[in-house]
Write a structure and sequence with these properties.
This protein has a single domain, classed as OB fold (Dihydrolipoamide Acetyltransferase, E2P). It is built from three helices and seven strands. The longest helix is centred in the C-terminal third of the chain and has 11 residues.
Length: about 160
Amino acid sequence: MSRIHLKKSDLKIQDLVSESPHIVEAMYLDKNEVFNEVHFPKETHHQKLSEAVYRDTALLYKVIKVFKSKNIMNEAEIKVWKRPAYGEDLVRRYHEEGVSKSLIQEIYEPKYKIADPKHVILFLKEHSTKKDILILSATEGLKASTEIEKILKIKK
């Protein structure tokens, strides 16, 4: 595979609060769940040398506090998927054709320091086909809570 070039996102907390249907403070439970697994057999490899496996894995979190959501409750366990730079289609193309391309991946840099990477604020949206999976848009440190609450109060 080729290189991934990281580009800092221009998003601000105000943008994330507006665009995210779900904003929660959550604790990572040290558990993962594979929800999609695709095997690419040796016979389809571009040089017939090896097989490959692609997996989508959701991280399990326990919700501590809900800032914004119509259906997530405090204490709920949620499954969060961070979209990989190289998705299933690109892995398949590399496996079958040997073709890869350099990707530019935008990353959100938290405004507030993340003191504990297992205890964070998550900005989430729904997965289009997996109703029990949420897609991670960004993470913030816990000190962002005051600013998030202020933005939400202004919007009401």
